[in-house]
Structures are given as structure tokens and as C-alpha cells.
Predict the 3D structure of the following.
Amino acid sequence: MSSKESILSRIRSHTGTRYEQPEITLDAIHYEDKTGQFSESLKAAGGAAVVLQAGEDINELIRKHFPDAKRIASNLSEITCATFDPDSVSDPRELNNTDLAIVEGCFGVAENGAVWITQQVKHKALYFISTGLVILINKEDLVNNMHEAYKRVEGTDYKYGFFVSGPSKTADIEQALVFGAHGPMNVLVILR
């Protein structure tokens, strides 16, 4: 008998009553106005959310929020303000100096303003290397809390995925908050 088996055997012999794992029931938070809560949560995280109004041009809305962006990346057909397709570059280092990336998000979380994004571009560096990030999601694709979010992600097939809530930020012990330390300095979520 190995030392591991010996140790486990001694533990089992001294174990008293065994208990089954209890069923976990959860009364997680729900919001009457998921869109409003999502917007407030994202604002608290340093980002912004806007609702695309009926008849409003999404490209004009993006240009309004990022008027100085020159190098704009997007592989979405509806985005005509993009200046290049990020999937056309062979080396992700060519994405450096991208002012704005416009990408599709899967769904948003009202509780914390996070958006679940799966890799829908050739190089995942695009999500982190651009100065600004615009994420498009449908208003109907908002969930209340992270419990609902993980249930929604569970069992789905994706190559790479992550939650993003606002711009990249870091703070040190001197309480100096820096935006854009490890990713975009500005994040805008457009709810369609």
C-alpha cells in the first residue's frame, strides 16, 4: 500500500457520520429594469451603455462617441465606419495602434455591467489592444445576475470567451486609478 493510500485509509476509518451535499437553492437578485441597471452598473465600472433608438444609424452613433478615432477595426458587415477588417491581418502585432475595435457581445449582466464575449475575430488581441472598444448586444440578451450568466454559458461551444465590465483599470496602494493599463481605455456597449 502506498503512503497516499495509507493516509486515505486512515482518514476513512476515522470518519464519522457522512452527510450528503445539500441542494443549493438560490434566490438571486432580479431587476425590473435590466437595461437601466446594466447601464448604471457599467457606468460604475467606468464604461458607458447607450440604447440604439429606432431609425438611428449605428455608425453615426459610434462616430459621435469616438470622433477622433482614425484606425477603426471591425469584421461586422453593418459597421461601415470601420477602416479595416481585423481578420485581414496575418500577425496580431499589426493590430497595434488601433484606435477603436467594434465587436459583437453575446449577452450582458445587469448586476455588474459585464458582457460575455466569445472570440469572433481571427486574433483575440483585438479585444485588448485597441484604445477604445465598442460592444454590440441585443437588449433582449440581458440577464439579471452572474448565476443566470453562467447557466447561459454552460454547455455552449466556444474557442475563447471572457467577461468584460468597463475599461481596463488598475490601482495601487496609493489609490491612483489608471485606465487602460491592460486593455481598452474606453468601453461603450450599444444595446440594440
